[in-house]
Amino acid sequence: MQQVHNQTITLQDVWKAKSTISAIIHKTPLIYSKALSEKAGAEIYLKYEHIHDSGAFKMRGAVNAIYQLTEEQKKHGVTTFSTGNHGFAVALAAKKLGIRAVICVSKHVPQAKFEKIKGLGAELEIYGDGQDDAEQRCYELQKEQGLTLIPPFDHPSVISGQGTIALEILEDLPSVHSVIGGLSGGGLLSGVGLVMKNTNPSIQVFGVSMEKGAAMYESLKAGKPVVVSEHETLADSLLGGIGDENKYTFSMVNQYVDQSVLVNEETIKKGMAYLYKEHKIVVEGAAAVGIGAIIDNIISLKENTKNVVIISGNNVDLTSHLNAIKAYI
Ligand SMILES: *Cc1c(COP(=O)(O)O)cnc(C)c1O
């Protein structure tokens, strides 16, 4: 059954988020990719969301959500479950505000991410096989210790925070025709889609996920949130369910994302290699899915249009990066 929104997220919320986070989050550059534009026959720009302090755009939503807490809530601290980047963002945002953070993660999250979270002074709670187990642990901590849960995607402040990316894109490229981003829980594309569709409904929004374990893709197909099993993937930041009581992102993605596509591991590798070769940047698999989809013609862009690909994160260890790209450089 379709959940009814108990709160509608508006364009005004995204503008408020932009103002709220501006003390901590700097605007990221929009880079024209000459090489990719020539290859695709359309203008392609890269939104550099991998250069945030935490290594991913998730800082935007986390900072916005933590700023909204009451003094009482801040005193008890925050918790979250995450495949890594959201946990890292919450840890860093909490640190900047001087509050306690406990991050619950499943045991499949890479070691490098554990260390990064600990390095920020957050407490780490390693629990279970998947994001759903880690999520359960968060609910327990909420009850036991009065921590406030900062969810990774299905929350108005998080969605509004991620939407600020779209405001920046419109500022730099007001005649944008399409935006392409990684799709997991859908916080990113709910926020970006909300802004783009309320600006001009003909701006296209594309979501890209990995072939195996694409929870949102399968849920959209089924018409309701479904559970999928998790598999090893280079796009590990796109793993995780969307929650069977999803309140916002399922219906927002359904409404705002024009097309949702899947890419395989080789396509992700090509995307990572391309960004390394042509732009000299190291990005994680989840951040390269859109580039891979363009290179392999999984997304076809109309001639002479202006298109933005969100380069969402850089949390990958260098050995995995090297192994991923070596066949394609
Ligand atoms: C979280 C994440 C995504 C997907 O964002 P959702 O809001 O979960 O859809 C994409 N790329 C990276 C690097 C991420 O960390």
UniProtKB/TrEMBL annotation:
InterPro entries: Ser/Thr_Dehydratase, TrpB-like_PALP, TrpB-like_PALP_sf. GO terms for molecular function: L-serine ammonia-lyase activity; threonine deaminase activity. The gene is eutB. It catalyses: L-threonine = 2-oxobutanoate + NH4(+). GO terms for biological process: isoleucine biosynthetic process; L-serine catabolic process; L-threonine catabolic process. This is threonine ammonia-lyase. CDD domains: Thr-dehyd. Its EC number is 4.3.1.19. It holds the Pfam family PALP. Keywords: Lyase, Pyridoxal phosphate. Belongs to the serine/threonine dehydratase family. Residues 22-313 form the Tryptophan synthase beta chain-like PALP domain. Catalyzes the anaerobic formation of alpha-ketobutyrate and ammonia from threonine in a two-step reaction. The first step involved a dehydration of threonine and a production of enamine intermediates (aminocrotonate), which tautomerizes to its imine form (iminobutyrate). Both intermediates are unstable and short-lived. The second step is the nonenzymatic hydrolysis of the enamine/imine intermediates to form 2-ketobutyrate and free ammonia. In the low water environment of the cell, the second step is accelerated by RidA. Its cofactor is pyridoxal 5'-phosphate. The keyword Lyase applies. It comes from the Bacteria.
